[in-house]
Amino acid sequence: MKKYSLTLESKPWDSFRCQKAANSLDIDMAKKLRHEFSVDADIESPFNVGLIVGASGSGKTTLAQEIYGVDSLRRVLDPSMPVIEQFPETFTYEDCARSLMGVGLSAVPCWIRPAASLSNGQKERAEIALQMTRDDSLVVIDEWTSVVDRTVGKIMSECIQKWARKSEKSVVLLSCHYDVLDWLQPDWIIDANKQTFVDRRSLRRSREEKLTFDIRQIDRSSWKYFSKYHYLSDRLPGGHIELFGMFLGDDQIGFQCFANYVPWRKEDRLYNIKEKMHFNRLVVHPDYVGLGLGLVLINETSAIMHDRGYHVMAKFSSIPVFKALKRSDRWRYLGTKRDHKVVVGGNMLRDAGFRIDVAAHQFEYKPGE
């Protein structure tokens, strides 16, 4: 344990208005403008996630600067450049993608736009991804949840702590919000309000707070809000489609489409051959990425489609989805092939639903096996 002490002090402003304000309450102005902080803490033993929490003005930022240096809180995200262009030159494309997906910034369109065009939550995730590529063994991040709503802040916290542990980095986070604690599961906490230290390295980690999502059948009207996050066409496939949304309360945060790429012929009906429906256009809003909601949305909607009598299939090129389905016991891997067919024009016919010269992974839904 080591003692960390600091004094925050402002010189009283000798003006009529300030003196009048102080005299109106009969206070000792010099005393009220001084804040002393002292805590005994072990923040040098190995850890992955540390949290300094407290209200604004409690001394957490100054404490971090005293311990780790003023430059430790320097932001690195350049708003004028795409995020993926800001990683070290030594990083391969796969290294960049792994870092961005690790913090939950998995929407490829967000990687290639100027960072200034991203939402506040996306900017914070990008900042954290870049910070964690530094050679420094320890990264300090200040107020990463202050510019997002509380639910998004919790999901971001979950992503950060998972990525810190997976990448074996030490990350110290500063926040004025106590509601992220359950999602961060920090190894230690310095509470600047109470001036206390809690060592949690030996505790078994479990998150008590849960978020409840539900799935509803929807029409195509919400696709215009989700299409910009998808890596394929911004139009839905032609032919027979079925659409589902994932909701948190009244807010839709996910989109899933099923399309009949192979027409269902008259003879198929006669021989009781099920209509094939492929899932596609899967989108989870970037603010909610990191909880595994994509696989949940795929599996739950595929179960609904299967129960309705469809033969549920999948054909896509997304590597994260491929890895998720390969691990799942609800999907049978049918192989990967590269389609060289040339499709002319920008129509959305069934045969235009697959891209050219891109590896397509094929799966079949297999419930109850």
Describe this structure in words.
This protein is an alpha/beta fold and 369 residues long. The protein folds into 2 domains: 2-76 and 134-199, Rossmann fold (3-Layer(aba) Sandwich); 214-365, Gcn5-related N-acetyltransferase (GNAT) (Aminopeptidase), CATH 3.40.630.30. 28% of the residues lie in helices and 25% in strands. The strands form 3 sheets. It has a 7-stranded mixed sheet, with helices on one face. Strand 11, helix 11 (293-307) and strand 12 (311-316) form a beta-alpha-beta unit. It is elongated and about 90 Å long. The chain starts with a strand and ends with a strand.
CATH first level of the largest domain: which class? Alpha Beta
Number of helices: 12
Mean pLDDT: 86
Largest sheet: 7 strands, mixed
Order of helices and strands: EHHEEHHHHEHEHEEEHEEHEHEHEE
Structural class: alpha/beta
Distance between the termini: 54 Å
The coarse overall form would be elongated
Question: Which strand order does the major sheet show?
Answer: 8-9-10-11-12-14-13
Share in β-strands: 15-25%
Tally of DSSP β-strands? 14
Query: Would you identify the regions where 5 or more consecutive residues have pLDDT less than 50?
Result: 342-355
How many individual domains? 2
Which superfamily, in CATH terms, is the homologous superfamily of the largest domain? Gcn5-related N-acetyltransferase (GNAT)
Q: Predict the CATH topology of the largest domain.
A: Aminopeptidase
| Radius of gyration, taken over Cα atoms and rounded to an integer in Å | 26 Å
